[in-house]
Amino acid sequence: MTIRASSVAPGLAIALLSGFAFGLAGPFAASLLAAGWSAPAVALGRLAGTALLLVVPLLVLLARGWRPRPGHLRAVAVYGVIPLAGAQVCYFGAVERLSVGVALLIEYTAPVLLLGWTWARSGARPRPLTLLGAALAIAGLVLVLDVGRGAAVDVVGVAWGLAAAVCLAAYFQLSAASGRGQDGPPALVLVAGGTLVGSAVVAVLGLVGVLPLRAATAPIDLAGWTAPWWVGVLLVAAVSTALAYLSGIAAVGRLGSRLASFVGLTEVLFAVLTAWWLVAQRPTGAQVAGGALVVVAIALIRWAEPEPR
Questions:
Q1: What are the start-end ranges of the H helices in the chain?
Q2: What percent of the chain has pLDDT over 90?
Q3: Which of 28-32, 176-180, 202-206 shows the lowest mean pLDDT across its residues?
Q4: Are 58 and 188 in contact (CB under 8 A)?
Q5: How big is the chain by its Cα radius of gyration, in Å?
Q6: pTM
């Protein structure tokens, strides 16, 4: 028992670090958006910055003899386009119009969307606890959006958030498929290559005018501290992407995917608290209650559904 506890404790610490790092992405991005950046430009900065930070570890891996196999490049390309480029652009698009907490909670309805897709595709009825979790998630989302009090809902912001949820659902699917197979690329290759592909996609879409790439050199404000614009880009790339993904992978290795995914829900809590601290986005009581319902709902769904094999 002592050995098991000593093995789990470091994994829990690493998983909490990952959740904290992921949770900071919204506040860091919000500071850049407030300084005049467009959401796609923030996404490009995050992806390109992460690709640059991970190029050295990737070169070390190649120097040690790793070579891609058939199918690896396709996996990296899909991962870069949907879970990385797609999720970042859509999430930051939501943050541009909604508070960080609301945007993240909408994105985290991904397990509910994935549940509906699986049900429609396979015809297999979900377990009762899973259906209860889906109902709680919808109720929580209504509270988060303050619909009951007649608050004005930014439809475009909600649409961006739901699009981010679709990309996150694709991330869960791709990760599960990769975990079941033995021919997938290493996690470092998937993240480094994916951010490189994602950067290229966002840059090309920006150059042809599909996405507005608007950056600014004005200083950013974080918790009353004025900093140069590049500090915001460095923080969102180094802390909220490179550190977040790599520590998350390490946590899964120590805790297993199920326990690590539960601890990963702390990202929502960290995002709300750090947005309150760094960019003064204070949630209402109803939004706090709704957020708690969404987190409980996701936990129920992940607990009720069998572990992917």
A1: 2-23, 25-34, 39-63, 72-79, 87-95, 100-107, 110-122, 128-144, 155-180, 187-207, 229-237, 244-255, 257-264, 266-279, 285-304
A2: 21
A3: 176-180
A4: yes
A5: 19
A6: 0.76
